Structures are given as C-alpha cells and as structure tokens.
User: Fold these one by one.
Assistant:
Number 1:
Amino acid sequence: MTEGWPLTNGAIVVKRVFIKTWGCQMNEHDAERMAGLVAPMGYILTATPEDADLILLNTCSIRDKAEQKVYSDLGRLNAVKAARPEVVIGVAGCVAQQEGRALLQRSPAVDLVFGSKGIEHLPALLTEALTTRRPVVYTEDPIGLAPTLPADRRERVRAWVSIMEGCENACSFCVVPATRGRERSRLSQEIYDEIASLCASGCREVTLLGQNVNSYGRTSSEGVDFAALLDLIHPIEGLARIRYTTSHPNAMTPRLMETLARLPKVCRHVHLPMQAGSDRTLERMRRDYTFSEYLARVGELRRRLPNVALTTDVIVGFPGETDADFRETLAALEMIEFDNIYAFKYSKRPNTAALVLEDHVPEPEKDRRLQAALAIQRPITRRKNDAFQGRVEEILVEGPSKTDRSRLMGRTSSNLVVNFDGPPTLIGRLVQVGVIQVKANSLDGSLDA
Ligand code: SF4
C-alpha cells in the first residue's frame, strides 16, 4: 500500500480515505478497487471518518433498507463537513448511479457522486472536485470491455477478482441492469495475469465475481466463455481453489457443468438463485426459466458433481404472489433440500418493472412468508451440517479464527467455516481436518482427529 505522496521538496503528504461499503461481494471488491485507485494519489485507508480527508460511501440499492442506511449516514456526515469543510465526501455505488444529481439536493455535504459504472474514473473525478471545489457527478454508461483496475486488498490468502460487470437480463425486481449497466467482460488474459500476480504474492484462492458470472464472455468478441476461462486459469501456479458467484440458472450449461466437474481446484459449491418455486411468480419476475427447468439443472449438477453444496436466493411476497404460489416455493425448498438459502422479502425498487405490477403483498404477510421459508430451511441446513460430524475435510487455512484469535479458521470446499487449533505456519495451506463438533454456523475441527 502507498505510504504517502512525495512532494518535490521530498516531504511526504499522507492523506486518509475512509470507505464504508454496503451490499454484495461485488461492492466489497469495488471498495478494494477504489482504495487501489486513490493510493497513487497519496491516500491510505483509515478506519474512522473523523480523521479522513476523503470519505466514500459505497452504496447498495438492492433493497430499500440498505438505501435508507446511506441517507442516515449522510445525515451524520453533515456534522463532519460542518467541522471540516475541506473534507471531500463522495457517494459511490448503486444509490449514486440511481439518484445522480438528486443526491446533491438531498445532502448538501456531498462533493462527489459516481455510480457503479464509473469507478474507473475516480482519480479524475476526485481531482476535479479538489481543484474546482464544486460538486462533481458522473453517471455515464460505459462502453467496451470491463476495465482492469488496481485493488488494495485486505486479505492475502483469498482474493476477489471481478471478471465481468453488469447484466443483460431484465428480472423485474432487480436494479442491477439500471445501476451497473449492460454486461461487459474483462479480457481473459488480463484476468489470468491478475490471478497469476496474486498467486505469486501468496494468494491461494480466488472468487471470480460477476452479476452473471457464468455468462462471462457472452457480449465480448474474444470467444472465451466461462468454462474456457476456468480452463485457462486452472493451471496457475500456487492457485489452490477457485470459487465464483453469482451464477444464473440459464447459463449453467452442460459444457460448464462438465468443466466444473473436471477441474479439481473448482470448489464444490454452487450458488444458484431460484427466487421462487412457482412458474406464475417466475414469469412475473421475468426469470426466463420454469421451476421444472430449474429443477432439471439442479439434478444435472448433483449428478455431475457428487457432494456439491447448493445454496440459493429466494424472494417472498413478490407482487401477485398468492398463497398457493408461495406454497409452491415452500414445496420447492422441501424437494430440493438446499444446503442453505438467502431469503428476502420483496421490496419496491426504483426503475424496475415490478413497480407497476398489481397486488402488492401486505408487509405482515411478507413477514409471515419469510418466517415460513426459514422454518422449512433451518432443519434441512442443520441436517446437512450434521452430516459433517466425524468426517475428514480438506480446508484452506485463511487465518486466525474470527471468534477466538488464538485458533485458526478455514473453509471446506463446500464453503463451511471450520475453526481449529494449529500453528500460524499453516495459514495459506490446504490441510486435512477432522470435524469434531457441528455448531449453528460453523464446524469445530481437529488436526489430530
Ligand atoms: S440476472 Fe436478474 S437478478 Fe441477477 S443481476 Fe441480472 S437482472 Fe438482476
């Protein structure tokens, strides 16, 4: 990381940047890229906004709740700006893309607004804000390939690598096509070079990121699809594990499944959003598959990748979802038996097609449906986790345990956290650990079991 910015007289100017992030792994990685982009301008990361010269709120608008949190943070930052007018406050990410100039009206403390599509322009936009001392707003649509950007990563053993941006689909509940734009993939050679360089510095696991990660290459003329990209990066020296998120069911082709099954470094975990078990709801969501097509993909995945862990997203209370539709979703959860689910109540989002749908489900009913879905899933997850008791699992040791810093933690290929006792010299290594106890959200292991 950059330690400062040398002046012509040899003095070092250190400036501090505070970045707060809401939302998905893409956003988390965008924060690393923002830190990487401003590092050559002399900014180092700080943990508090009070001593920052630059404050960036990296926002998410996938749900109304996340968006409201941004506005309450901006309210608090008014006091920071009043005390130190020279501090630059920027709003980035999906809320910035969605609101654009309107953010300046809602919060006069804001100097810089740039959406998820404009991260690569951060140094130029920041320079403009600093020199003109006037608010700068950038919400243009990008064209061409997704860029390769520097990133200031916090972890050594694992790294997120963005391989594509945006989405060509049009799910009626989703803000992504509006906030992140059309699908753009990075060049495969640039992805290869980034991963090779990470592995040369001790990285052992990469998570390939994209809104529709498995449709990588669909809009580029390079002729490299996601399966070919996996084949390309698999031999990289030092690379032990490959993860990827998020996959779209329609892009989970037989060719890709064959590749996932053939390559041993690809982890045995697939996150495959189902969203609903009712065809009527799936159609209103514009998901472009029926439940039986989804079920067929799941069956094929399980046939080709024995022991694969399957997780999914479910939205309850989508407009027009009847009790009978919802019961089909519950039946789907019982039938498929996912390893885990991420269930959410539908919330109205700006610039989405679902806004104009009729028959919005009342909030108390959404709450009831959410609890019903979780009640079905809880014992399934528990039973699946219990099956690890007594098994020996290969885990990649990531570092100290989050719950007890004197212990170590790593993950199974299926993405379950395992805490165990061992020396720090194991960090970054694949080790065999016996599972001695199954807890609510993790496993306890032993090197001797
Ligand atoms: S596939 Fe659908 S839910 Fe996923 S990012 Fe694209 S529009 Fe959103």
Note: Residues 208 and 244 are 4 Å apart (CA to CA).
Number 2:
Amino acid sequence: MQTKQTTKSRLEPFALDRAFTFFECGPVMLLSAAKDGQNNVMTASCHASMGFEPTVGVMLGAWNYSYHTLLETGECVACVPGADLMRKTIAIGNCSGADIDKFKTFRLTPQSAKIVKAPLISECLKCLECVVERKIAVGGAYLFVLRGVAAWINPHRKERRAFHAMGDGTFVIDGRTVDMRDKMTKWQDCI
Ligand SMILES: Cc1cc2nc3c(=O)[nH]c(=O)nc-3n(C[C@H](O)[C@H](O)[C@H](O)COP(=O)(O)O)c2cc1C
C-alpha cells in the first residue's frame, strides 16, 4: 500500500553496522535447551527460516550459556511466544541460565517434547523441536542451522499475536492480517 509523498523522496545512507535490523523481523523466539536434566531458555531474534523442511538458522553468541548446551546436546526447541509474554521474553534475554533457573523464575511450564530432551514451553504459541545440523562461524557469532523434527501449536492461547524485534530495543506487535489467498494463484498448493 503506497502513502502519498509530499516531497520527492530519496533513500539516504544508513549505518552499515545497524543494517542487520532491516531484516530482523521474524517473531522473537524463545529457545529452550536442557543439560543434565536442567532446563534453560534464552531469547533470540536474529534468525531466519532457511527452507521448507523446516530448517531455521539462528545466530548464537558463545557468551550465551545456551550456546554451550546446544553444542553439547545437539538439540533444542525453538518457540514463538505471544505478545502477552513480551516483557517476560525480554527479561529472559537479559539474564543467564548459568546464574538462575529461568523456567522457575519466569514461571514457564516445561512440557515434554516428543523427540528431543529440551522442553516445549506450554505458554508459547508454537514450538519446533530441533536438532543442530550445522554450526557456521559468521562474524563474531555462529549460525546454528536447526532442523525441525516435530512441531507443536497451542490453539488455546487467547493472545495470538507474535512480536518482532527491530534491533534497537523497540518491538512491533503483529497487526492487521490481510487475506490475499485468492491472489496467490501460483501458490495454491502451498496455502
Ligand atoms: C530481544 C532479544 C533478542 C536477542 N536475540 C539474540 C540472538 O538472536 N542471538 C543471541 O546469541 N543472543 C540474543 N539475545 C541475548 C540472549 O538472549 C542473552 O544473552 C541471554 O541472557 C542468554 O541466556 P543464557 O546465558 O541462559 O543462554 C537476545 C536478547 C534479547 C533481549
């Protein structure tokens, strides 16, 4: 949808080291992992869908406790929290499982997964059980290629909207849904 421009608009240069925020708009993710029977969870917004298998690529820094758990166990659960969990999700990304039990602190309910040992999070809208397929060094962090092995949804949550990190401490909550299915003529098999 185009808005009316009052002056002739032109693109302006933007700081390259902030340009990752252009595309950091997937739903904010809660990533659960478990080691020695201890569950943990971290927040991740730097991720992208990489295929239809499904495969998801998540950038993880070695400074995270979860990074080491994923390396050791080779598995995790990638979950989508609703907007009602936004404050909790941000707080989860500002503390470490090395210091506290985040499931307990943030009153999250671990639910047994089907294939991996890491827990689903009952309060989330969607959870994808994943195994680590590859780890690729990218800049100062690592791209974990996660292959989904079982998928779950929670149809009972009242809040259905996910939220997205803009990369500068601001977040956008899902807005109006526009149904364009009848215009997706080439992709009728996919919808
Ligand atoms: C909104 C938000 C998004 C984040 N996205 C990422 C991310 O994509 N990758 C990453 O390595 N850390 C990310 N973090 C930081 C981790 O969640 C944070 O370091 C967390 O404390 C790690 O927990 P852990 O030590 O228990 O693993 C994010 C934090 C917030 C608040």
Note: The chain has one domain: 26-190.
Number 3:
Amino acid sequence: MSPLNVAVIGGGIGRAHIAEGYAKLPALFRVRALCDIDPVRLANVGAEFAIPRLTANFEDVLAMADIDIIDICTPPSLHFPQILAALATGKHVVCEKPLVGSLAEADAVIAAQAGAKGRLLPIFQVRYGNGLQKARHIINAGLAGKPYLATVETHWWRDAAYYAVPWRGKYATELGGALLGHAIHAHDVLTYLMGPIASVFGRADTRVNPIEVEDTAVASLVMCSGALASLSVTLGSAREITRVRLCFEHVTFQSSLVPYASGNDPWQIIPTSTKSGMAIDAALADWRFVPSRFEGLFAAFHSALVTDGELPVTLADARASLELITALYHSSQTGQPVSLPIGPEHPKYHSWRPA
Ligand SMILES: NC(=O)c1ccc[n+]([C@@H]2O[C@H](COP(=O)([O-])OP(=O)(O)OC[C@H]3O[C@@H](n4cnc5c(N)ncnc54)[C@H](O)[C@@H]3O)[C@@H](O)[C@H]2O)c1
C-alpha cells in the first residue's frame, strides 16, 4: 500500500507532527501540502521538509483530490469549523487538542463523524511512550487489581514571551487556560489508565501571568471505580515536571518526570508482592518497544485506518477530556462538586467559559 497523503494546517505544533511523526514514518505517510496564514512560517516549514504544495488558504486544501488526511494544528477556536469542513470532503481528519470548545460542539462532531466517509483522530500523543504503554498492558491484562489512588501533577512554566502570541491567554481564542491547554494531556493519561470519572471538585485561579484564563488549579476526583484522584496544575513551576502516580492493589506505577513525554521510559512499575511481580514479568516477556509521542500515535492511527480497527484516541476519549474540563470549570466557578456524565441539560453544556 502506498503512503497516505497528508496536508498539515498550521506550522506551529504542526511542524512537530511532521518532524516527530510523519517524517519518521515515510512508508506510511507523505506530507504533500502545508497551509499557514503566516507566510514566513509557511515558507520555512515548507522548505525544511520539502513539502511540494504551500498555501495560505484552507479552502485550497479541502479541494486537493489526492490528499487523504487533513491534520488541523490551528488555534483552538478554529478547530470546530475546520473539522466539519474537512469531514465533509470525505477525507480522514487529525485534530489537535482541545478538539473543540464545548460538549455541544463535541457532540456535533460525533454526529458529523458518524455520517462521514473519513475518520477523525483527536491528538493525545503523550499516551505514546514505552513506559506508559507497559502500564496500560499490565492493567488491560487484569494484573493491576483494584485501583486505589492517583496523583497527577502538571507543573510547567509559561511567561510573557509565551503569551505574546495573540490567541493565547484569552477565553475567546484559547478557550481556556492551563486546565484546557496544558494539563489536558496528563488528565487524559489518568482516564486512559484508570478509567472514567464519576465526580469532580475543582478550584482554579490566575496566579502566574496577567492573563484572562486560569494558570493554576487543583482538583479532587472520584473515579467510577471508586478510586480517588488528585490533580494539581500550575504554569509557575521553576522546574517543569509532569508526574503521574497510580496505586493499584497489585502494583504502583510512577511516570518519569519528563514534562512533555511523560509516557516515555523510565516508568517505575512496583509490584506489591513477589507473585504480582512474577505475573507482570511474564506479561512483559515478549514486550515490543512502543515509539514515543507522534511517531507512536501516527503509526497506531495508520494501523487503525488500514485494518478498520479502533482508533488509538477515540472521539469518546476527546469528549471525556472536555467533560472533565466542563466539570472543573463549573465546579471552580460554583464551589460545588459536579457529577459526570454531563449532557445537554447541564448549564455549561454549550460553553464552559464564563458568561
Ligand atoms: N499536542 C501538543 O502537545 C500541543 C502542543 C502545542 C500546541 N498544541 C495545540 O495545537 C494548536 C496550535 O497551537 P500552536 O502552539 O502550534 O500555535 P501557533 O500559534 O504556534 O501555531 C498555529 C499556526 O496556525 C496558523 N493559522 C492560524 N489560523 C490559520 C488558518 N485559518 N489557516 C491556516 N493556518 C492558520 C498560524 O499562522 C500559526 O502558524 C492549539 O490547539 C494548541 O492547543 C498542542
């Protein structure tokens, strides 16, 4: 089978999609077009990867008959209309986080996907890393036992230079703050490994930068399994870390501290008994290395497309991440806990942003 032809929209994180993902998988993908309204970025990224077609016009890409995948890496407020337009062409679609700006938009995308020829991959590349995937394998093999407790820390650093990009720091264009834009990855890892969330109590504040959206938050969760979880988030940590620690009956997992690739080795996998340790060792005996971030995610995406298998990140996963966001904002604004799931009757279903 020949490689799938990709058009990347937006050359910021879109450049990393190419460098870390598509360019490392030349047998699976070819980047044939790049679209960016910034002419300098368009020319630079286009030249760096010898991309044959460069355009500032998204409509041009929609009309390119040979493109199989449109990969949307534009600012968050553009995702919803661009996803709908891209799905309407029948092509496959990849879209950066946050997928869209509300649960209502997520449900509209789910409905559009159901009637579309192409499939939609939401981005959660931190899932891909050899350490995290071993933990997932142990849990899926039924060897972890009852989930007890999780702590998830997203302690990063952002300063004025970061917020000089005009769309950042504002509800209208970034759609939210550190909970939405930064901690969303580690919080996705929590549900990826420990399952869905039942209840959320959150507190959010803006303490680090003079911005409209939050940059510091904490939350207390009850998972559907009954396990308890705590989240802490700041963009004011002098040393950047992401840490996920998950305590189960038979094993405790602890991620590396690496902030943007916390799925990578080394993960500590600490069995609670010799018997558990032997079962885990046996389960990992034939383990095959899982590549990191976009390379691992896009390889799994290609495999799902050719086998018609389950996507490595589903629309349900993306919706669940936005449901947590909605609950966190509602709880921190009202001072009340929020029960999940959240449907159309919820006051923040159409927007989690303050009125
Ligand atoms: N997965 C991750 O780890 C990760 C990391 C960073 C950003 N992101 C997400 O990726 C998205 C983009 O973030 P970024 O940091 O790359 O932003 P950015 O501002 O650096 O890049 C976005 C690019 O999109 C271009 N653009 C804007 N409107 C456009 C349009 N209508 N058509 C074509 N191009 C257009 C801009 O010129 C810019 O070059 C956001 O949703 C962000 O949350 C994800």
Note: The domain at 4-125+298-312 is CATH 3.40.50.720 (Rossmann fold).
Number 4:
Amino acid sequence: MARRMSRRRFMVLATNVAGAGITLLIAAPIVGEVLQPIFTRRAHPWVRVGDITQVPVGLPTAYVVQMPTTQAWKVPPVARIVYVVKLNVGSAVQVLPLSNVCTHMQCDVHWDQNLQQFLCPCHGGLYSITGVNVGGPPPRPLFRYRHKLVGETLYVRDQLTEA
Ligand code: FES
C-alpha cells in the first residue's frame, strides 16, 4: 500500500527544491563568468606604438605602450616600454621593436649612448643594438615584437620572436 506524504513533508521538500533552483539561477552566471576564460583563447590584438617618423637611424628610441595582458581573465593593460630601432640594411631601413625586459631576471634595460649598447643596471647585462646578448649574465637576446607598419605608424603584437 502506497504511503502518503504529509503536507508538512511536502512543503519542506518543495521549499528545498525551490531553494536549490534559485541558487542555481544565481550561481550559474557567476560560475560561467569565472570559468569562461579558461575555455576561450584571447586574441593578441595589434597595439599601436606610434608614429616613428622621428626615430633616427641607429638610435633606439623608447615608446611607452599600453600592452594588453596575455592572462585569460580580464586584466587592464599594463604600460610597457618598446624600443624602436631603425637600421640601414642595404638601401632599406629595417625596423626592430624590442622589449626592454632583460632576459636574465627581468630588470628594465636602457639604451646607453656611450656604450652604444643596451645596458641592464641590475647585473651589468649588455645587448647589441639589435638586442643580441653580448655581455654579462643574460642568456638570450631581448624579445622582439611582431610588428607591422601602416604608413609610419608602428603596431606590435605578442612577444614571441627572439632577436
Ligand atoms: S637582470 Fe639583467 S643582467 Fe641580471
């Protein structure tokens, strides 16, 4: 013989089911927002460096660029320095956009006009004008950004290719 559910027990069960449903409705969008970046790849957009008309050949020039982060979660862009180097190659001018982050322990390097090299102040690392590590502890060249020119305006993306 079938047991009948008491009204009280039915009300408790209905309240619990309704509570669970409301909790799911509230939690699902939050959980989705938190987990969604794990399942989506963020594209690396082109980032405008600026007009490089005034950059002299043979003199690395620093530009401050708002660089988007590569992290999956929404993090505001960070200011990075990109050194723009122009070199004469035959009859053409080659443009090299270099990171200023030392490949030893990530200190900021700067162009030293007297040395005619990039100098890292932390441990004396040296890089040539093309970003090649030529002295001190840095194990690799400075990172070179992918780049494109639209007229004289330079854009960079990623930080994937080494000098
Ligand atoms: S951090 Fe640049 S040489 Fe060590």
Note: The helical segments are 7-39.
